[in-house]
Design goal:
This protein is α/β, with parallel strands linked by helices. The protein has helices at about 25-35, 50-60, 65-85, 100-110, 125-135, 175-190, 205-215, 220-235, 295-305, and strands at about 90, 115-120, 140, 145, 165, 195-200, 245-250, 255-265, 270, 275-280, 285-290, 310-315, 320-329. The structure holds N,N-dimethyl-L-histidine. N,N-dimethyl-L-histidine binds next to strand 11.
């Protein structure tokens, strides 16, 4: 990891950074922009605007994932939660908790809803969500945790058992394989024997269908992609011109993932206080996200590598998306 004072970007590295710049973020951005293929983690999409844009994505006709997963949850959760006797729901990357309600409703119907722990990187979204859920589910304890799940996972010590740890939305796809194993290993380490892990995965399918989901006709995904540059401008005082970057998303058939990039439409120099001047050649890209697609065998491999056992699996009739349940191996 390079320090902000590094001379990697020349003289400008000595400039004063804005007061609110987070040193961790600054170091991550410096590292990512110094790679031969510039790359930044997708968590930088999500300020308030980014979260709202993602919500719009979930309602797009091309983006089949959210509605398919919701239907699977509605069909399966009442039975699963009643059978497990789930008393605590821990949700990783909870966002606005729209789909959590399906699980919470199932817990309430089973008479076991005691604690809900939504974990998300966006504090604003999380506190709004927590306030709403406390009103909607009187008697349910809601203990939100602001955390970057890619870096750490701490579960409340005295959560009523058994817990269901949910990682829905297909977000596992946004993790590279080693990071996915690390994350699931942390989850396994936090689980008691009776706890279960619920994970949603987007399935491998016709490439045109996947690519359409990330190149929507209304351009919402393109705006979501460019929002990362707005976040960098706001958080680090950078001077990216989002309009000077084009959106590109394509499927890698070997890696089984879609990649999202921002493509510099002209040569440009971007100043990031604390880092310095970053050059983009015309056509040079910044990779902002991968979204891996799974099948049953690859989910089984992932679970095994993390010390989990794939216990149950449900997919929709068109095999677009699957819900998977794991237990400590
Ligand atoms: C959050 N995550 C599962 C989304 C995905 O499909 O990988 C993020 C996204 N990126 C573009 N569209 C949606």
């Amino acid at each position: 990891m390079i320090k902000p004072s590094s001379t990697r970007y020349g003289q400008a590295a000595a400039r004063v950074q804005p007061k609110r710049a987070d040193p961790g973020m600054l170091a991550e951005v410096a590292d990512g922009l110094a790679l031969p293929q510039k790359e930044l983690p997708p968590k930088f999409f999500y300020d308030q605007r980014g979260s709202e844009l993602f919500e719009r994505i979930t309602r797009l006709p091309e983006y089949y994932q959210t509605r398919t997963e919701r239907a699977l949850l509605e069909a399966w959760m009442p039975e699963l939660v009643a059978r497990l006797g789930t008393r605590t729901l821990v949700e990783l990357g909870a966002g606005n908790a729209e789909k959590s309600r399906i699980i919470l409703d199932a817990m309430r119907a089973a008479g076991t809803a005691e604690l809900y722990v939504p974990i998300d990187v966006s504090a604003t979204f999380l506190s709004q969500t927590a306030a709403r859920l406390r009103r909607e589910y009187p008697g349910l304890l809601v203990e939100p945790v602001v955390a970057d799940i890619s870096a750490e996972l701490h579960l409340p010590r005295r959560a009523p058992a058994p817990a269901l740890i949910a990682f829905i939305g297909g977000t596992i796809g946004n993790f590279y394989p080693t990071a996915a194993i690390r994350l699931l290993t942390h989850i396994r380490d936090a689980m008691a024997p009776g706890d279960r892990f619920l994970m949603g995965v987007d399935l491998r399918k016709d490439v045109a269908k996947i690519e359409a989901a990330y190149n929507d006709a209304q351009g919402v995904t393109a705006e979501f992609n460019r929002n990362m540059l707005r976040v960098l401008n706001h958080e680090l005082g950078a001077d990216f011109d989002p309009a000077a970057f084009d959106h590109r998303a394509f499927y890698d058939r070997t890696a089984h993932w879609i990649e999202m990039h921002l493509v510099a439409s002209r040569p440009q120099q971007v100043m990031i206080p604390g880092i310095g001047v970053v050059q983009f050649a015309e056509g040079e890209t910044l990779r902002t996200e991968i979204s891996a697609k799974y099948d049953k065998a690859s989910v089984g491999d992932l679970y095994r590598a993390a010390g989990l056992r794939l216990e149950a699996w449900r997919h929709d009739a068109d095999r677009l998306f699957a819900l998977t349940v794991g237990s400590p191996a």
